[in-house]
Amino acid sequence: MAFKSTSNRNHLCIVREVGAIGGSVIASASREQMHYSFDALKTYVPQMVELLVDFVRNPVFLDWVVNEQLQKVRAELGEISNNPQGLLLETLHSVGYYGALANPLLASQAALRRLTDTILEEFINENYSAPTMVLAAYGVEYEELLSIAKPLLFDLSNAPWPIAQGAKTCICWGRLPLLG
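^ that's the sequence the OP posted. Answer follows.
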């Protein structure tokens, strides 16, 4: 859902702005992190940082976009049954860990049915705070990056992340009986 729309830009505007500087954007997710990346020439660092901050801080989850993405995820879930290695890895995580690493990488059908724009907004508000985010740049002087980012991020919540203070991920010895 990254790079679709923000409260400041619609999708067409985002595509045009990224294209105007010859950039490319990528977002990925894992069990423990979200990663947003922007590649372009160094001279466009101010534009890249401003766009990245807008993507992360001001996403808008339009109903039709959420539904479109949910259809894609459902198709991916259908394909996972043809990937024994992926199924094995998911199963090993669910029985081998507790805490964050035990969470499935792919959402269940039941979880997808409950997913709404409100839940996505709550996730952003609860998890995207100063203690949980990193802004990094390659080939850019630290002071330059700081001077660009500070005005965009000065008001970011510095509240501690509740999960970081409580539950810990731990390896546990699980057992999964194999059927069949």
